[in-house]
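Structure in, sequence out. Go:
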């Protein structure tokens, strides 16, 4: 063994990790960025193509207006300043999935700069700077397996060639793998709220590369960095960063030198491997794209685009805490996706008591969804159903036990609450005499609590309500129970 198990923890305090992330996000436009081809994912290979995105000589690119609007929306949501004039540039490199021999991107004049995302850390909130957000086209895809002759050839699918992307480059402000994870989680949440991408990592709509280096604590200059590419989940990025940081420390501690290079993460082994040296790969010979005019986003257009910006997650949570009297943690759960938050607020607006709706969603609905592995969009109980059940509980028509039973049935049969309620409307005991009889029995059986109540401890009534509901197997009308109990106990 070269190192003792304690070595990493001991060296961790000596070095400061420096991490920067580059995130590529595909925009949800109907058509590609420079031609009218469809962006639909999963179509047969090479069916969404034309001379422009095939890179044939002659045809000219035409910029997709909607792609610009989506990029501006995302950049604004990330607190960036939109530059009124930005320039498209050719990034020259050779790769089989790039038939033109260059990618149209933005270089020294990007669309947006100087943004930030605020993340939570154990030491409190921290701002991670965003250097730039720029527009570019995606490349095609090399298919190394999955086809009948994959053993013999690598195939090319150019459906993805020309799909609009934004690249979001962070400042090297990230200090731990956990912070990187948190940054990516917030970033994805914000982009999803803007609706400009589905951020589906399995389909490659969100891809992340990480630049990582270490330096002795207190040192100003950065250490040599390595780049970890194409990691396909946030959890794996955290693991890859943990591995890379430890590798850097071990190399430096043993007197070695970090080589600047691109590395790939193998999630199965939990290790990174050298892919190519970065030393000479840097020369992309950028120059302004002669086939496209400078991109101008004037005040009027900008104002028009920004009007589409929805309330963003952080602001929404703060408002919901104030408006519905729920906790911060509950607000986080209810705003995990915009769809969930929208649906909750729709139900809250329709019901008499929004707080009760929040409690039902948090405890009774989300719990059952989780158990079944369903998203809120797939819930058998609609938000209209939740609102209806909340009102029935509020008016005392449904006890909480009845409500839970009906929710169980709705999930079992895959039917919405109103339908289940109509069919299964619980037989409630609304017969005053029958309830009075149960009350008399409960009071007789609990003389101590009766004494407490009459001695002034009025909260004991909740105990009696519980006992009566239990004795009636949850079928007594709760409003009636309350009314009759108050009367009886006051005698
Ligand atoms: Zn095309």
């Amino acid at each position: 063994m070269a190192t003792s198990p304690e070595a990493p923890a001991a060296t961790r305090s000596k070095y400061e990790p420096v991490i920067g992330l580059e995130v590529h996000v595909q925009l949800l436009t109907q058509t590609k960025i420079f031609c009218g081809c469809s962006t639909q994912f999963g179509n047969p290979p090479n069916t969404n193509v034309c001379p422009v995105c095939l890179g044939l000589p002659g045809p000219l690119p035409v910029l997709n207006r909607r792609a610009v609007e989506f990029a501006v929306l995302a950049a604004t949501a990330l607190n960036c300043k939109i530059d009124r004039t930005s320039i498209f540039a050719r990034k020259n490199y050779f790769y089989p999935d790039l038939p033109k021999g260059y990618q149209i991107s933005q270089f020294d004049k990007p669309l947006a700069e100087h943004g930030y995302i605020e993340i939570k850390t154990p030491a409190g909130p921290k701002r991670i700077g965003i250097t730039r957000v720029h527009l570019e086209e995606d490349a095609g895809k090399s298919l190394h397996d999955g086809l009948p002759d994959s053993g013999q050839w690598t195939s090319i699918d150019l459906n993805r060639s020309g799909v609009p992307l934004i690249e979001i480059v962070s400042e090297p402000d990230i200090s731990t793998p956990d912070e990187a994870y948190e940054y990516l989680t917030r970033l994805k949440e914000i982009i999803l709220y803007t609706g400009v991408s589905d951020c589906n990592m399995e389909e490659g709509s969100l891809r992340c590369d990480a630049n990582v280096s270490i330096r002795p604590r207190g040192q100003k200059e950065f250490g040599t960095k390595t780049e970890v590419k194409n990691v396909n989940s946030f959890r794996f990025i955290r693991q890859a960063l943990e591995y890379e940081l430890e590798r850097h420390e071990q190399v430096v501690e043993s007197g070695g030198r970090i080589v600047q290079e691109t590395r790939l993460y193998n999630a199965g082994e939990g290790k990174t491997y050298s892919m190519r040296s970065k030393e000479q790969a840097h020369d992309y010979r950028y120059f302004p794209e002669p086939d496209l005019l400078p991109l101008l986003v004037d005040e009027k257009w900008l104002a028009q685009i920004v009007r589409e910006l929805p309330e963003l997650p952080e602001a929404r949570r703060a408002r919901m805490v104030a408006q519905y009297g729920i906790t911060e943690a509950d607000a986080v759960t209810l705003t995990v996706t915009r769809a969930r938050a929208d649906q909750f607020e729709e139900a809250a607006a329709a019901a008499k008591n929004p707080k009760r709706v929040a409690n039902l969603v948090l405890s009774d609905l989300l719990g059952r969804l989780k158990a079944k592995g369903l998203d809120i969009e797939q819930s058998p109980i609609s938000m209209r159903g939740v609102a209806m059940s909340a009102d029935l509980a509020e008016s005392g028509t449904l006890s909480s036990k009845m409500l839970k039973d009906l929710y169980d049935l709705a999930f079992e049969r895959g039917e919405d609450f109103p339908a289940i309620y109509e069919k299964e409307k619980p037989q409630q005991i609304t017969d005053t005499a029958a309830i009075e009889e149960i009350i008399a029995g409960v009071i007789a059986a609990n003389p101590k609590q009766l004494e407490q109540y009459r001695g002034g401890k009025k909260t004991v009534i909740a105990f009696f309500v519980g006992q009566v509901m239990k004795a009636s197997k949850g079928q007594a009308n709760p409003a009636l129970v309350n009314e009759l109990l108050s009367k009886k106990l006051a005698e």
